[in-house]
Amino acid sequence: MIAGISKITFPMIQEPRGNLSFIENSTHIPYDIKRVYYLYDVPAGSARGGHAHHELKQTLIALSGSFEVHLDNGTAQETVTLNRPYEGLLVDTLVWRTIDNFSSGSVCLVLASDIYREEEYIRDYCKFLATVKA
Ligand code: TYD
């Protein structure tokens, strides 16, 4: 994987009556989770993201269905398909991400290291490249 991203496999308790996965703050996530948000009812053909963060770290999980995460750390690019509820994609600071190809009914859960602060977003790709190279 390119620098700035990694995969996390969460525990899965498999039983005939169904599967159960769990995520513990300090055990499975390398930062304190301060916010949880989720993307759902994403229309076919829609794209989310299109930004990077100065300070925020996030873990993306396909709780249901599948989608593609396109990642760019300023020097290398990679596309990761998420489709397993027991897998997380950890995205560090200064990684540009776009999410698309949402399957019908998919849910993208995001575990974030801080509350929402628009001022720490980088929404301009040229500014992102300049920040990474600085
Ligand atoms: P944005 O982060 O651009 O969404 P995405 O990256 O998923 O495409 O946020 C979309 C809008 O929602 C924007 O107006 C900011 C707002 N927002 C909040 O108010 N709180 C949040 O926790 C998040 C993630 C977004």
Describe the protein's architecture and organization.
Helices cover 10% and strands 46% of the residues. The chain is globular. The model has no long low-confidence stretch (mean pLDDT 98). It has helices spanning 25-28, 125-133, and strands at residues 5-9, 12-15, 18-21, 35-39, 48-53, 58-64, 67-72, 77-82, 87-91, 96-100, 107-112, 121-122. With 134 residues, it is mainly beta. The protein has a 5-stranded antiparallel beta sheet with strand order 1-9-6-11-4, with no helix packed on it. The protein starts with a strand and ends with a helix.
Characteristics:
mainly beta; 12 strands; five-stranded antiparallel beta sheet; 2 helices; binds thymidine-5'-diphosphate
